[in-house]
Design brief:
This protein is mainly alpha-helical. It contains seven helices and two strands; from the N terminus they run βααβααααα. Helices cover 59% and strands 2% of the residues. The radius of gyration is 16 Å and the shape is globular. This is Scp2.
């Protein structure tokens, strides 16, 4: 779901285009919409940066093996510096903006559900996830919380971390 949007077992530019189409549909962006053009440019930069780091055989595809190697290489740097590679931070911003369809810098439960159902989750998974990381609505899903959950998703080794629910799957 997360990077392999078309679920073909690899990550390539087509996944980013597929993601853009889902986000455009979700946000009601037409082909000529400036926001769609800006999102496309952002995704191009993310893909090129990701490809440079992960596509070791330069075939334009990040295979499962290349993906695992990328994370093996990145893990120590991320844990030491507590800083993500550019492509991962930029994708975090893209995903937040994609779900924040109202543009108010808060992802409410309805926005979260609509966004992640579009990416293949069930409404029930969305409800469970949102309730988990907002503590039943006590916390507001703003950029700060989203960033915290994003970091937990990628670097926490605690299976009970709320960040594990960010993309809908709470049980690992």
């Amino acid at each position: 779901m997360f990077y392999d949007v078309n679920q073909d077992g690899k990550v390539d530019w087509d996944d980013f285009l597929c993601s853009l189409e889902k986000v455009s549909k979700l946000n009601g962006w037409k082909a000529e919409d400036e926001r769609k053009s800006a999102a496309l440019e952002s995704l191009k930069m993310i893909w090129e940066s990701l490809k440079q780091k992960a596509d070791t055989n330069s075939d334009g595809v990040v295979s499962h093996e290349e993906w695992l190697q990328l994370w093996a290489d990145c893990t120590d740097a991320i844990l030491t510096k507590r800083e993500f590679p550019y492509w991962l931070s930029a994708y975090m911003s893209f995903m937040f903006d994609a779900a924040d369809t109202s543009g108010d810098n808060v992802i409410d439960k309805d926005e979260y559900s609509k966004a992640y159902v579009e990416f293949g989750l069930t409404p029930e998974q969305c409800d469970q996830a949102y309730n988990t990381f907002t503590e039943g609505g006590k916390s507001i899903m703003n950029r700060e919380l989203f960033s915290k959950l994003w970091h937990e998703f990628f670097i926490s080794d605690d299976k009970n971390s709320k960040g594990n629910c960010l993309f809908g799957k709470c049980d690992w």
